[in-house]
Amino acid sequence: MSLQNKRIADDEFSKIREEVLRQWPTGKGVDLDEAIEFHKSLPERKIFSKKLINAKNNGITLIQPRAGVALIHEHIELLTYLQNNGEADLLPTTIDSYTRQNRYEEAENGIRESMKQRRSMLNGFPAVNHGVAGCRQIINALDTPVQVRHGTPDARLLTEICYAGGFTSYEGGGISYNLPYAKNVPMEKTIRDWQYVDRLTGIYEEAGVSINREPYGPLTGTLVPPCISHSVAIIEALLAAEQGVRNITVGYGQCGNLVQDVAAIRTLEELTNEYMHKFGYDDVVITTVFHQWMGGFPQDEAKAFGVISWGSATAALSKATKVIVKTPHEAAGVPTMEANAQGLRCTKQVINMLSDQVCTAADLELEKDVIRRETRCIVDKCFELGDGDIAVGTVRAVMAGVLDIPFAPSRFNAGKMLPARDNNGAIRILNAGNLPFTQEIKDFNMDRINERAAAEKRSASFQMVIDDVYAISKGRLVGRPQGLHGLSY
Q: How far apart are CA 390 and CA 5, in angstroms?
């Protein structure tokens, strides 16, 4: 069947499913009917979608870390520590790199080596290798909902095993887990593979089990303009809704300018709901996730806590449904569980202090309007290119550079669009490439960047982009030339 945004027929899904479950021996342990009953037996406190809906209704921002190690017992120990000592509201299971690339034999070797060395030799949890029974040990051991976080272009078997294992939330999508993660995977393949993931989620939903789905918001993580990540989130949400997903969390990665970041989270939910209603998906619950700074971190631990605190404040003021928390050891590599817990407690403290405050900056409405207009330009053009079909239109939009993710490694990504900060630190677009913006929007972006260029007494150029990429790791937001860091803005 040619690619289209249409619910996968039951007979076609069943045929694909037989092939998927044969990819690794643990696939034999998946029993859909039994898995649905297991989910129905879970108490509400362990169900991701219910906790998100409660937080949304009560204006609460939940906190969630990243974490994952190779062996079941150690993974449970890690998550239990983050639950009890880190005060995490939601928990992750980060999947290892071999599993993300469907290299299960090498993941198996990593498990054996981890047992031998008595420490994790993988950078995450190899859920496919541990199988349904291994996943259930994790779910049964904890009192907090657990989400699967990974980065897998073809996540079909991983989804089957994790859902049957009792995980109640699942991250990723056909765009966000392809272009930022893979070099040679065609867009048609990942969209089709992730339609399978979403159809499986829909089957659980239709059986009375609501599993939360979360497109990956930060994409490449550095200097991604809100309109780009918003467009990807909206498209992936629409693709998921068509397959029957009814609980979706759309995400955004912190850029650093408070007003722009608050405007981004607020417009993200608004615009996603706008397109959901436009195409008849009126029964989908939309929540938001704010990712703390995903770029380089300062080496100094105290300065790293400053970056975490700023992200925490922004999440609280934006009223995001949840925030993904970083650690003070980001610059050093994989954090200890103690550092992870410190980042969580730091975030919770700031969120509690700001829970009753509202961001009322005068520029907020202007920023929201800019994000709305830029995002609609991109998403509407995707529909146009697909003759009304968003799956087809997305593939064509990526090929044409209409949807262009900065710094993505994929050879299918145009890579023509370049972002840079303006004089206030907001992310603007230095080179629009083939983004389908009006001349007015292009002029607005360049005017803002030129204001910065004039203040710094240099021309707007690629050097600004380079400077901005490294700025936060050097203790700044805007990458200014040496001697200009005291500039008022």
A: 6
Alpha helices in 245-336 (DSSP H): 258-278, 301-318
pLDDT at 489: 36
pTM over 0.85: yes
Alpha carbon distance 443, 438 (integer Å):
9
In this predicted structure, the answer to whether residue 487 has a pLDDT above a threshold of 70 is no
Mean pLDDT of the 88-92 span? 97
Task: Report how far Cα 108 is from the mean position of its chain's Cα atoms.
Answer: 27
Residues annotated as catalytic are: 100, 171
**Rounded-to-integer distance, Cα 473 and Cα 137, Å:** 39
Residue 486's pLDDT is what?
Answer: 53
- CA dist., res. 178 & res. 354, Å (int): 36
Can you name the residues that pair with 125 across neighbouring β-strands?
95
Query: How far, in Å, CA of 204 to CA of 166, rounded?
Result: 11
CA distance 336 to 329: 8
CA distance 85 to 88: 8
**Identity of the residue numbered 182:** A
- Classify 407 in phi/psi space as left (phi over 0), alpha (psi -120 to 50) or beta: left
Percentage with pLDDT > 70 across the chain:
96
Q: 250: which strand partners?
A: 288
pLDDT tens profile 38-71: 999 999 999 999 999 999 999 999 999 999 999 9
DSSP designation for 457? T
- DSSP-derived letter for residue 481 is P
Which two three-digit tokens encode residue 125? 């949890």
Distances (CA, A) of 150 to 68, 178, 201: 10, 12, 17
| Burial degree of 3 (CB within 10 A; 0-12, 13-18, 19+) | middle
The Cα–Cα gap between 161 and 165 comes to 6
Task: Look up tokens 């991983």; give the residue.
Answer: 158
Q: 404-408 long-range contacts, Cβ below 8 Å, gap at least 24? A: 404/228, 404/433, 404/434, 404/435, 405/179, 405/180, 405/219, 405/220, 405/224, 405/228, 405/232, 406/220, 406/222, 406/223, 406/224, 406/225, 406/228, 407/220, 407/222, 407/223, 408/179, 408/180, 408/219, 408/220
Phi-psi category of 87—alpha, beta or left, where left has phi over 0 and alpha has psi -120 to 50? Answer: left
**The pLDDT of residue 488 is above 50:** no
How far apart CA 41 and CA 34 sit, in angstroms, is 11
Domains for the chain: give ranges and CATH numbers: 10-354 (3.20.20.240), 416-489 (3.90.970.10)
Whether 282 shows a pLDDT value over 80: the answer reads yes
pLDDT value at residue 76? 98
Compute, in degrees rounded to 10, the torsion defined by CA atoms 393, 398, 399, 404. 140
